[in-house]
Design a protein that fits this description.
The structure holds 2 protein chains of 2 kinds. Chain A contains 32 helices and 15 strands. Chain A is α/β, with parallel strands linked by helices. Chain A has a domain at 692-740. In chain A, a hairpin with a 4-residue loop joins strand 14 and strand 15. Chain A is globular. By secondary structure, chain B is α/β, with parallel strands linked by helices. Chain B folds into 2 domains: 2-44 and 102-295, TIM Barrel; 46-101, Alpha-Beta Plaits. In chain B, the strands form 3 sheets. Chain B has a 9-stranded mixed beta sheet with strand order 7-1-2-8-9-10-11-12-13. In chain B, a hairpin with a 7-residue loop joins strand 1 (2-12) and strand 2 (20-25). Chain B is globular. Chain B starts with a strand and ends with a strand. The chains are: A alpha/beta, B alpha/beta.
Chain lengths: 740, 296
């Protein structure tokens, strides 16, 4: 691999988990125990067993202090390793030990003993395919600016200074004490690492950097990366909270980069260290990929993109990796040259790069009352979510927009298990007009929304009881000033969110009902429901007719697109007024990105009127349903950007499929840029290009119905994939294989 | 005034600068042996039947007013001689096996369609390209369309084989920003062998456009055994044409077999397809002798 020798590469790739053993990235972490000298700490299984025993000593203290003590116990005793083949230490992290012990015990206490009715309802919603609801510990980002400026030492000192600035009651004092215990534990841990690195041949560079971090803030590019790495590993793998971005990298690391060059550190060394930093996340291999973002603007409109941004992409490109994943905050000031470089990488297969539009996000956040500075400095995290600095909460609640449709068509019953899960709805004969039907759908939708919000509000009151956040609190100035856990009102952004899945399936279904039942009157609602209940068996011609119909979202067609606009209007009315103030001091919002939940929800979703069969994949993000973007890339962008992403103030992401041959050459790259800039100017939120490869084409050959929109460029002209015969498709697949 | 169009392609990327909409007009005065758009040859409306996509739903049989679709031994059969090209079967076909090539559009109807993507032309330096068949067979229509496009500030291009009267070119020349000009052979003999016509008029028109100072993008199909042996002579000749902005080499592919079958045409497409390596080599060779930019 470029920048990293085979020897070093093999070490790092096996450092977090043994690559020769089966690894399921969903299970997060399978450690490589063999890597660690037993003299450096205790047996990991012993540590795991003793966390709860150790906790017995602190029963009279707050959960914050008890969790901090558990963190201290793990960091004091876990095995560590330094190696000349790497510049980042190895930590025997025991697969989220607090999650498996005290956090789990408090979680069970809350959901089984304190609010069991909430848990029962939560499980019912999941099992019935209505919603996927989980506590979202996955979308917070520490205040990196403060972390870089102060280091662990400075953050601890500041917390203590605020603690001692006035008299504290016992609850407040416990809050600060938990931060003190956590940060002292981190420093003690760094001391252990320093001692080991000092004694390890070939690890002197690491030792020197650890010493700097032991005493304060980082000074070099490498030290800043080491700080991020340590914070990430401790928070994510010990303290039970994901670090959902590695920061606005080119903004925060630029000063370190310049300083290094001034002090004689070569760019080559910086590149090599950066490559090893990237490779940590490649090796960890979390299924959700580790986000990091580039770009944005400074006050006054100057772009953040700098030499480091280019270097970052260049190293990433040459390593040919996909984890970490990269978001680019796109602005009008973003240099075209940089954007073209990123687009060129995307079309060569780097689908791990996505664009989020800062002007849209900025306007949206300012409309929600944040200052221009707060809006501009917002984090991009997760896939393409965004929030102001020092925020907690994103949305662990994914709702299925097709379920209320089932209730509307079945008198409030679920069409898969026949349970009465919705609100009582009338007999189909009562829907005399489409408006009657549509209004009833909205009533059912509101029922599901109210149910979910009510449920989540109840358990979110217990977030800091279950998993208090001392480490994160230390980086949040807001949390320190308010003396509140970041999850319980101690953040600048305290919103809770609903994410809605299957928007395109919904509006396509509404379009088909309006068109064929009410406008053309080609079939009755009862006949349609019978077809749906029988999965179109015996009515295959109707299935094809509904699938083939062009009035589908993502094609710049008024009928479905106007339904989507109207659904947003409705959600704005029924979701936005809800508060979570009792638990977290914020407001409810909504978005249209349900990530992996889209697959889980699909399993229990009945056949829908747009021709999607039971169990089949739901439409993703704010994109056309599978195979339905038949009017191409420009129509897809026009449809999605008809939505008011500023009003949504949440995710309105577009997945856009393109074929390598359609965007080849200089013309192709310029065309991609044209698509992207149009998306930006039309106030889109986020766009993800999918450049299809041979594997996709092979699937297209097997399942042509899913790929009715797929076009291929045949040397100077485009043809529809389905319009060429198998021999020709084989030829194209072969050609596509050579593109790699 | 109406024109017969067989395809409207949005997000056309390689038909001139930027993101474009390309409109394909019916009818062509040439008959290239390698033609990839056989549906553009005839100036009449045609029904194409893609038999490999037929699912035997028989919806077309039910709706056809003239017995062009029948059931024969339980399988659908298309009887071309009975077809009146009414298009009813295309609308109802559940397997997307039927395609009507050649629909009549007014200038305003086409204008409405292309304006939908104006924002993309504006943001990419793109516009509208007219192709075919041979679009200049509709020069009067194109003039009206281009005048309206110019009123909207939209860049215009025609993709022409050049085998057309100079008077037709004169009708549209002032409203056309770019000519995508096909150059298929150097000698008249080879040209006639490949396309059925001599290239005398084509060369005269090319020199005329050059004299008029028009932007010209040359497109050369590279077809082994048909025109490959003249390609260096073509490039040398083109060195004498001043206003060429770029030359695009189009490697021949035989991906249009299904179209020939669907139209019940004899498939004239050559069997030898150039390899990627061959194309790269030839482009590198040509770059050494061309004064113009040769692009992919």
């Amino acid at each position: 691999m470029e920048y990293i020798s085979d020897k070093d590469y093999n070490y790092i790739m096996n450092k977090h988990h043994d690559q020769s053993k089966p690894f399921n990235s969903l299970s997060r972490f399978v450690r490589n125990d063999e890597l660690f000298d037993e003299n450096t700490g205790l047996d990991p299984n012993f540590i795991l067993e003793n966390i709860m025993i150790n906790d017995e000593k602190y029963k009279e203290f707050s959960h914050g202090i008890r969790k901090a003590k558990a963190l201290e116990y793990v960091l004091s005793n876990t095995r560590i390793s330094c190696d000349s083949r790497d510049v980042f230490p190895a930590i025997n992290l025991i697969d989220r030990p607090l999650n498996k012990t005290i956090v789990r015990s408090w979680h069970r206490e809350v959901f089984l003993d304190i609010i069991p009715e909430v848990e029962n309802e939560r499980l019912r919603l999941i099992n019935d395919g209505i919603a996927q609801i989980y506590i979202d510990y996955d979308h917070s980002v520490p205040n990196f600016e403060r972390l870089f400026n102060l280091g662990f030492v400075g953050l601890l000192e500041e917390s203590e200074k605020i603690r001692n600035s006035k008299e504290r009651n016992s609850e407040e004092d416990a809050f600060f004490e938990s931060i003190k215990i956590s940060y002292e534990a981190v420093l003690l841990f760094i001391k252990r690492l320093y001692n080991l690195a000092s004694e390890t041949e070939g690890s002197q560079k690491m030792a020197k950097a650890l010493k700097t971090l032991l005493n304060g803030a980082p000074k070099t590019f490498y030290e800043a990366m080491l700080l991020v790495y340590l914070y990430f590993m401790i928070s994510e793998y010990v303290d039970s909270l994901q670090v959902r971005s590695l920061s606005n990298f080119d903004k925060f690391f630029y000063k370190f980069y310049l300083n290094d060059l001034k002090n004689g550190i070569t760019e080559d060394e910086i590149r090599k260290d950066l490559a090893k930093f990237f490779l940590q996340f490649t090796a960890i291999d979390n299924y959700w990929n580790q986000p990091v973002f580039l770009g944005g603007e400074y006050e006054g409109g100057k772009t953040i993109i700098n030499e480091l941004s280019y270097l970052f992409l260049d190293v990433y490109d040459k390593m040919n990796i996909y984890n970490p994943k990269i978001q680019i905050k796109l602005c009008y000031s973003t240099p075209k040259e940089f954007t073209l470089k990123a687009l060129d990488m995307i079309r060569r297969g780097h689908s791990s790069i996505v664009f989020v539009c800062e002007p849209t996000i900025k306007e949206a956040l300012m409309k929600r009352g944040y200052t221009e500075e707060q809006a501009r400095d917002c984090n991009v995290k997760g896939c393409f979510e965004f929030s102001v600095q020092e925020s907690f909460g994103c949305g662990g609640t994914s709702l299925n927009l097709l379920k209320p449709l089932e209730y509307t068509l079945h008198k409030g019953h679920d069409a898969v298990n026949n349970a009465f899960s919705g609100i009582e709805s009338p007999d189909l004969s009562k829907y005399k007009t489409f408006e009657d039907f549509y209004n009833e759908y909205k009533r059912q939708l509101k029922g599901v929304i109210d149910l979910s919000i009510n449920l989540v509000n109840k358990y979110e009151a217990y977030l800091s009881y279950i998993n208090p956040q001392s480490l994160l609190a230390g980086t949040f100035k807001t949390s320190l000033d308010l003396v509140k856990d970041p999850m319980q009102g101690g953040s600048t952004g305290n919103g809770s969110g609903l994410s809605f899945g299957a928007i395109a399936d919904l509006v396509d279904s509404l379009s088909m009902i309006k068109k064929y039942v009410y406008d053309k009157k080609e079939l009755s609602l009862t006949e349609l429901v019978n077809m749906l209940d029988n999965n179109f068996v015996g009515n295959e011609n109707w299935l094809l007719k509904l699938k083939n119909d062009r009035d589908k979202f993502g094609n710049n067609k008024d009928l479905p697109d106007n339904f989507a606009i109207d659904i947003i209007e409705y959600l704005d009315k029924v979701v936005r007024p809800n508060l979570n103030e009792k638990s977290r001091g914020g407001r409810w919002g909504y978005s249209f990105h349900v990530a992996r939940a889209v697959y889980a929800l699909a399993n229990n979703t009945a056949t829908s009127p747009n021709g999607r069969l039971i169990g089949e994949e739901l439409s993703k993000n704010f994109s056309a349903s599978m195979g339905q973007n038949r009017e191409g890339a420009t129509a897809a962008i026009l449809s999605t950007t008809k939505m008011d992403a500023v009003k949504v103030c949440g995710d309105v992401p577009l997945d856009l499929g393109l074929l390598p041959s359609a965007i080849k050459g200089e013309d192709g790259l310029e065309a991609m840029y044209g698509l992207l800039i149009t998306f930006l100017k039309r106030k889109g939120h986020a766009i993800h290009f999918n450049v299809f490869d041979a594997e996709t084409l092979r699937d297209a050959q097997k399942n042509p119905e899913k790929y009715q929109d797929l076009q291929i460029r045949v040397s100077g002209w485009n043809v529809l994939w389905n319009n060429i015969n198998k021999v020709e498709q084989d030829g194209f697949i072969k050609q596509a294989e050579s593109l790699i | 005034m109406k024109a017969k169009v067989f395809e409207i392609k949005k997000f056309a990327v390689h038909d001139g600068d930027g993101i474009r909409t390309t409109i394909f007009f019916k009818g062509c005065p040439l008959k290239c042996v390698w033609c990839h758009n056989p549906e553009g040859l005839s100036s009449k409306t045609q029904l194409a039947y893609y038999s490999h996509k037929c699912i035997n739903c028989f919806e077309c049989v039910k709706i056809c007013p003239n017995n062009a679709h029948i059931i024969n031994n339980g399988i659908h059969e298309y009887v071309a001689k009975n077809c009146i090209n009414c298009g009813k079967c295309e609308e109802i076909c559940l397997g997307n096996a039927i395609k009507i090539y050649g629909k009549d559009y007014t200038v305003d109807e086409l204008l409405k369609i292309v304006l939908e993507d104006k924002v993309f032309y504006d943001n990419s330096g793109g516009g509208v390209t007219l192709s075919g068949g041979e679009c200049l067979l509709y020069a009067n229509f194109i003039k009206d369309l281009f005048i309206k496009l110019k009123n909207h500030g939209i860049n215009t291009a025609v993709d022409t084989c050049g085998f057309i009267g100079k008077d037709q070119i004169d009708k549209i020349i002032d409203y056309t920003d770019v000519f995508l000009y096909d150059f298929k052979a150097y000698t008249s003999k080879t040209h006639k062998n490949c396309t059925g016509q001599s290239n005398d008029i084509i060369i005269k028109n090319l020199e005329y456009l050059d004299k008029k100072g028009k932007n010209i993008e040359i497109r050369i199909p590279y077809v082994p055994n048909y025109n490959d042996f003249e390609i260096e002579d073509m490039i040398k000749y083109l060195n004498g044409i001043k206003n060429i902005t770029k030359i695009r080499i189009l490697p021949y592919h035989n991906f249009s077999t299904a179209k020939y079958q669907s139209l019940n045409y004899e498939n004239t497409m050559p069997s030898v397809v150039p390899t990627n390596e061959e194309i790269e080599n030839i482009k590198n060779t040509l770059r050494k002798i061309s004064i113009h930019k040769i692009v992919d």
